[in-house]
Amino acid sequence: MTLIKQLTNQDEFIGYYLLKEVEIKQTNSTPPKDYLDLVLADATGELPAKLWDASPLDKETFFPMGLVKVKGLVQTYRDRLQVKIIQIRPAKTEDGVKLTDFIRSAPISSKELIHTIHQVMNGIFDTEIRKIVEFCVGKVEEKLEHAPAAKTHHHAYFGGLAYHMVRMLELGEFLCGQRPFLNADLLKAGIILHDIAKPEEMVAQLGIVSEYSLQGKLVGHISMASNWITEAAVRLGIDPEAPKVMGLQHLVLSHHNLGEWGSPVQPQMAEAVALHYIDALDAKLQMVEDALHTTPETEEWTPMIRGLENKAIYRLKP
Amino acid sequence: MTLIKQLTNQDEFIGYYLLKEVEIKQTNSTPPKDYLDLVLADATGELPAKLWDASPLDKETFFPMGLVKVKGLVQTYRDRLQVKIIQIRPAKTEDGVKLTDFIRSAPISSKELIHTIHQVMNGIFDTEIRKIVEFCVGKVEEKLEHAPAAKTHHHAYFGGLAYHMVRMLELGEFLCGQRPFLNADLLKAGIILHDIAKPEEMVAQLGIVSEYSLQGKLVGHISMASNWITEAAVRLGIDPEAPKVMGLQHLVLSHHNLGEWGSPVQPQMAEAVALHYIDALDAKLQMVEDALHTTPETEEWTPMIRGLENKAIYRLKP
Amino acid sequence: MTLIKQLTNQDEFIGYYLLKEVEIKQTNSTPPKDYLDLVLADATGELPAKLWDASPLDKETFFPMGLVKVKGLVQTYRDRLQVKIIQIRPAKTEDGVKLTDFIRSAPISSKELIHTIHQVMNGIFDTEIRKIVEFCVGKVEEKLEHAPAAKTHHHAYFGGLAYHMVRMLELGEFLCGQRPFLNADLLKAGIILHDIAKPEEMVAQLGIVSEYSLQGKLVGHISMASNWITEAAVRLGIDPEAPKVMGLQHLVLSHHNLGEWGSPVQPQMAEAVALHYIDALDAKLQMVEDALHTTPETEEWTPMIRGLENKAIYRLKP
Amino acid sequence: MTLIKQLTNQDEFIGYYLLKEVEIKQTNSTPPKDYLDLVLADATGELPAKLWDASPLDKETFFPMGLVKVKGLVQTYRDRLQVKIIQIRPAKTEDGVKLTDFIRSAPISSKELIHTIHQVMNGIFDTEIRKIVEFCVGKVEEKLEHAPAAKTHHHAYFGGLAYHMVRMLELGEFLCGQRPFLNADLLKAGIILHDIAKPEEMVAQLGIVSEYSLQGKLVGHISMASNWITEAAVRLGIDPEAPKVMGLQHLVLSHHNLGEWGSPVQPQMAEAVALHYIDALDAKLQMVEDALHTTPETEEWTPMIRGLENKAIYRLKP
Amino acid sequence: MTLIKQLTNQDEFIGYYLLKEVEIKQTNSTPPKDYLDLVLADATGELPAKLWDASPLDKETFFPMGLVKVKGLVQTYRDRLQVKIIQIRPAKTEDGVKLTDFIRSAPISSKELIHTIHQVMNGIFDTEIRKIVEFCVGKVEEKLEHAPAAKTHHHAYFGGLAYHMVRMLELGEFLCGQRPFLNADLLKAGIILHDIAKPEEMVAQLGIVSEYSLQGKLVGHISMASNWITEAAVRLGIDPEAPKVMGLQHLVLSHHNLGEWGSPVQPQMAEAVALHYIDALDAKLQMVEDALHTTPETEEWTPMIRGLENKAIYRLKP
Amino acid sequence: MTLIKQLTNQDEFIGYYLLKEVEIKQTNSTPPKDYLDLVLADATGELPAKLWDASPLDKETFFPMGLVKVKGLVQTYRDRLQVKIIQIRPAKTEDGVKLTDFIRSAPISSKELIHTIHQVMNGIFDTEIRKIVEFCVGKVEEKLEHAPAAKTHHHAYFGGLAYHMVRMLELGEFLCGQRPFLNADLLKAGIILHDIAKPEEMVAQLGIVSEYSLQGKLVGHISMASNWITEAAVRLGIDPEAPKVMGLQHLVLSHHNLGEWGSPVQPQMAEAVALHYIDALDAKLQMVEDALHTTPETEEWTPMIRGLENKAIYRLKP
């Protein structure tokens, strides 16, 4: 079975894929004919596909996020690859394929990631800080198992957010060793809380974001997390204007560093500076890693990466 | 008695003034001598002043925010007016002067302004919105009687914030008449809440800001108000993620319009757009009015105004 | 008869519409066939439409700005609605439809708007200012009855410019009441003159701008209006460098506030500051109103609005 | 006699200088004493100077733009040279010094420059263009003999504007030879008109700008010149909206290239593009030349030049 | 034979053209058919073209950069002209057409341009500077005969780079006459070296750039030229950190003036300032000239030009 | 003996200090008197100091970078601490103080740092890369023992550059563990080379930068390092345009990430992205650490830090 990432022009292939998008459209011909405009995906990438001359049955059979068996031909349309579907049918139980094999996900299992996050949380000495962090994590506990860290920018896959958090926690631990003036409780809390509202900011299924939620648009994950910290304090009987509460809110509010990047205040605590630069380092390197990973080994250059000044990455092998 | 605004170079004068700042410094002479570096103020403006050869008694007698009787001479130092003090003593009870006569304040009394704000609040139909607004106003009720709207930018005087709110409410009412699609409840609430955290963001006395508070620096008035709305909802038993709560938070969070001006989200409700532009119009016109008001009638140009692209304003009388 | 705004995918409909654009094109088929690429419009919006297999007669029958009777089917093409025309013929006299019913226009009649503008002009006390304003209005008197205020940004419809002026005059009157230091003559003149050259900057028919004029491109409406004020002064025997003439030119030249927004000088008179912010407030609220008005009631969000930081507007109903 | 440019720390010197600025100030001592705060200048540069213990007679004797004989000592104050005056008296007739020897001026005499400009004007073939140019030059004919091209930026000296125009005309002639598609009439007219309103935008004496005029602030030289072209057309009976009139206005309006640099429209004619880049090249090279000229030969680096990205210029002699 | 520039909608024509691009594609029809997607070019411009129903032989016959004889029909597709090919065959020897007649090239022959560059190089007095320049020119001697100065921006044709250099050298010579403080050796060297690495930065054939080279992307022509100067010095036994070597590197490194335009340092020598502004003037005027030249005489406006603030140029004929 | 960092207003103290700056100045008195304007420093900070009534002997006795014994009084001048010197004499051999005790330096000894750097260099597998790195390090071997990493921004002290390199190498090693796709040779080489030319870009003594060198201004450390890599390749017989040479140059050239921050190309290799963000993280955290370290423990806020968006850092102790 051929992986999406390996398909090239003029390939004829058979395989199982995920239908990421399904839309009924009409051709320009007279009279216009219905066809299905699809996106085929697996864990290695995705490709647009057309099922010309779709029958009424076809139009009822296929739906987004369903698994299918496809026989197809790869063609070039406007300089991009596109699949012409020769045969297609829904996957059956006896085919033995399962959805989770077809989605991109973090290289570590969600369970392990969540376990690590809980361990770090338990290691926060300050009881009030720990309880506030636990309250906020509790709000998204379930979604954290699959939420991506972003729509497209970085860690945009199943478990991406938890993976990003764990990597940042490792880096934070290393830095606390290198620079003992950093307060480990604050840095841990900051790392766990900084993107904690993302699962409520975006509507995602299986790690794929379909849109921003109403709250995501009107309030945004940065202010949502700040509000959650206030809610946590009030519900836990902690003074919502105590310095440590402000400190946690400051870490969250300032982690995008600049106003034009979405932060209403700029970092003014050592841990806030650390948090922003740890976040940047991890996100940017992940963009590079993901781009290299989804680009065929035969290509010297990845596609352009929006989050890296729109530059492509070159594989130099000295 | 001569008003600060009327003093010109080489004037010799006697009058009562407020000591806005008092500092003990040393001259460059050998041996250096102590002198008092002062700022004299009244409701029309302020001027730096020097008391050369300050005696030990002088150093104990004068303190900031005290009233004094001064005999002085106006001189020019580095192109700016400065008072050389000839005689100075603290004001006495029998002098019959009172502090509030010497500070700049809004042209309408605080009582009246607060009354108007309460009237408008009472006119909010939606009970939950009204209660949330009342909760937030309740947090700063006392300070609202004197808080300025900013450190220097605009409405920087006794009662300036309440005055700004009342003027904006008038403008808001006019616009709701002109454009009935605007929701009056939301616009009223937005106007009252948008700067409601300013009295806690800045430390002010008699309308004069001395510095930003810790919370002001780490969280900022925009996020503080958003957090207060969450606190209000939780304490009042309203769902803190109900659409109307988000809506109020959106109005507050977006009222600076752009990220680089401090807003983590941009206006996405009709009332949010209205709020931002009403705020801008009122603040900018007040800067003009204040500058014209504190510039002697004999001057054609005001000083440069930072909030107006650093431009001075010309009095054209056609 | 179905309004454009109400049409949805798969609707079959009959109705009268305005042909806003008509173009003859060829299909990709071999041999290619001619078809008509059309834009159907009414007062509520517009939609692209195709007449496949256009006959030679068809190609001569239909022209832009003509009224037609159409039987059509709504389809989706690249995520946007598009009409497949089943039958089409020009409207006849006996159909009883008239052009002006099919174009978007200001909610107040041009006559009334122009009347109001004249009334305000007559109320300008300073004779020279009034005459200069009258001279400039005289240059576009006729076009003012239908000119839009912009190509797409705001008030982009029949009578939009006059409507924008009248709304701004109302707001200006309110502000002169709130802030008596504003000179009413200057503010009225500024509001009437600020966009007065727009009807000559853009080529428009029935409120629809087709392109910028040569003068619009090379000189621009801001400098055109400044030149007209000079011309008025010279022709009326007023010194073209008198302070009041400069003042009027300053109001016009500075009304976009910043150089990057097209103003060669920044506001330096109280009325110039007021003019800019009145203009901004009215234009932005109109963008919101127009977007809400042309978005079906069933949609919670309007499309993105370029003049509002590319944000969509949400209808929050608390 | 020692030139300003040659004075170094601890020099004692005698010579004639121009008093560019004179101000009476008071020392910090008790009681404060009057002293004169002066700026001494000659054609090679300027230095601040102090006359300590100024007598009442001194205060009446010295005034700006007067010539004086000075005996002084050069000292360092806050890292900058400053003259302590030992003796000073006004220059007398018998001293045989004259004002114009003490001011910086263009290296070619004003007469010659004006003559060249007239010659070029006479060479404009198109009668209407020539007459409009003549009308505008006529407005500032007298001031053109001494007006500088800017307050400090470039060509900031006696005759600087005419000198800038002549150099640009030479460069324009060269380019018309290199690129025959350029219209020489338009380019000549554009070069002569682009800064023609500067003598009315700034108040200058002997090539030294003291301030901007009211019209300079409210309208600015770019729009002033555009208005003058309109005035010229009206007074000369030429249609003020004829293409060639617009063309001339376009050249003037667009010559700063970008809105943030003061141009309300961007260059859209070949000659407008040429005009902007000729202006830039000549102004920037003159800044370099002036900086090298006023820096002692012994210095490798000039001071920082604001118009050249705040960079200093190094004299590399290979 | 009809030139590309002269073709208009519905023209039927026969002529010889260059195949600038050739791609095999499939139509949307069922089953899809192969067609050739072509770009026809000559020295006056280029047009997209389609050969519908391409035979297997067709697919093997036509290749990029080949000459063909075409009978075609001009149509409009999405508002742009496009050729429907009726007949096509490769050019034969007996047709007597040659490749170089079909490409855009500088108006002066490469031979002459290279000759002029060598003459100027020989005129550099300083032996070390001359040798370094010769070394760098030697690296691209052959490619200089055809290299364009840019991919699309300006001088994007056969010999464009050498032509740009020669024009700049003429302008440099004129300026050295006007301003004798400029060092002619440095200015000549700077002009020759500033873009000398461009032939290695971009991969070009017959003046047409297909892509950037690896070195072009990773190092860029500015740093490449700086490195070449170091290499030249080392290989020629000149101290690579001698002031004159730094000077040459400074000229190259600073010639884009600002960091955001690619220069790691800003101009800090008189000749560096001159170089940047000569480069800007020549490049911008060439953009204008090229746009006017490739726009039919009947058009008043050229297309928009990216390098000129995205403005079109108007042909004003007074 | 009191450390600079511990001195507060009105303290009288005795101790040994480093004279970081010494300048002879004159008072404003009549006649003016000479005084010494000094900067006292030790490893914890620095303070301005005045020796009033300096004798001729004083003026000859004290010089920059000398050690002195001082009795002084701390005063406040313009809101900043300043020392009035009561007694001062040069340190004598028998005082037993040595220069290196009085300068700020990295917390790890230069020897150790250099040793670590050599160890890492030896661990580079690719022979050519290792030799190029060694050649470049060899150029500044001696200066690396004391060179700071910047003038004021970060690591501005004795050994600061080597310290920055070592910390970055540790971080780089950690990341290579976390993300095995990173090439360790390239990342090590990039970290060592990225600022390797700084010791030649700035003139420094004991870790204190006095000014930029000529090469530092005209070429800059980024291009200098790129040129050195070329020189290394040529001298070592390696092709200067081999991919691995380009790769090293790319790492150096792109490490400031953006053009406006001084990088002529943007990161396009995984290791280049890592290098930039490692550099940013280490530099920013060091700014925080240095500011906290030099701020008295009693202060809650550090001074504003230019490299951190001009924000001060708050010590939150939860």
TrEMBL record, chains A, B, C, D, E, F:
Q: Where is the HD/PDEase domain?
A: 157-293
Superkingdom of source: Bacteria
- Report if keyword S-adenosyl-L-methionine is assigned: no
Q: Where are the coiled-coil regions?
A: none
Classification via CDD domains: YhaM_OBF_like (cd04492)
Hydrolase as UniProt keyword: yes
UniProt keyword annotations, A-Z: Hydrolase
Q: What is this protein called?
A: HD domain-containing protein
* UniProt source species: Paenibacillus haidiansis
